[in-house]
Amino acid sequence: MRIGPLINPAATAADMVDAIEAAERAGFPTAWTNQAPGQWDPLAVLAASRTPLDVGTSVVPTQPRHPVVLATEARTVQSLIGGRLSLGIGPSHAWYISDQLGLPYDKPARHTREYLRILGPLLRGEPVKHQGEEYTVDTQLAIKGEAPDLLLAATGPVMIKIAAEMTDGLIATWVRPDLVDSYLVPRLGPGRRVMVGAMISVTDDPDGVRAWAAEAFAGTEDMPAYRAVLDRGGLSGPADAVIAGDEATVAAEVARFRDAGVTDLGFVPLGSPAEQERTAAVLAG
């Protein structure tokens, strides 16, 4: 299992690039970032970083980008960074896609399947001739090079099935190792990548960290996809998914993710600056 930071959108794009380069200096093999509403373009940030790390998006929302545009951007970044990109995508949430962007969000699974019918072949350098519910495409990219790995944000049974059929693996968050082992990995199938994003804190006050997380991420419970995965894992809220405790406790919990079948762990360190430094030190080791 490879461990690396999940770089949250920062004050400037340069700050994010600096954070990725700091991850390399700390000894991590990977770094991830995501597309937050109104924030920096994650693929542009990854292209600007000058490290040998394997980097990935966790995740890029599909609807704001036509699949041909996303395939072009991803293949461009893949070429610029020397074949180290994992492209994580997902349909996002209704509060962003519909409420902020005014786009339909009534059938996200159908949208995702059709999107992947276009995106996947283009990433592999294949021609696409497609006429569907949302897209009509007849094109091929002239960009040469190795295709990036393609991962799908998937925690429900339908989306996991799509990930198993059409991608290299899945991305999940707000999950614990038991759910990975008993639910995600069996449905996805063997030999696939499983990337999990986790909130982690090496701390002497785990209850305090979880109390902070419960307040900071309270909105998670109002998002149907996240509420469903919390319920499926027997978690009352996002704080229950936080890994917090001393060095030994955190190391043991991280090992459980590895044993459950997680191939990539992207972490967000929680707590004070000192606690975040302790967290990074344990995970880098």
TrEMBL record:
> What is its EC class?
oxidoreductase
Enzyme Commission (EC) number: 1.-.-.-
Identify the InterPro entries for this entry: F420-G6PD/mer, Lucif-like_OxRdtase_MSMEG_4879, Luciferase-like_dom, Luciferase-like_sf
The domain of life is: Bacteria
Cite the Pfam families for this sequence. Answer: Bac_luciferase
The cross-references to PANTHER family, in alphabetical order and at most eight, read: 5,10-METHYLENETETRAHYDROMETHANOPTERIN REDUCTASE (PTHR43244:SF1), PTHR43244
Protein's name in the database: TIGR03564 family F420-dependent LLM class oxidoreductase
Instruction: Give the species.
Output: Amycolatopsis suaedae
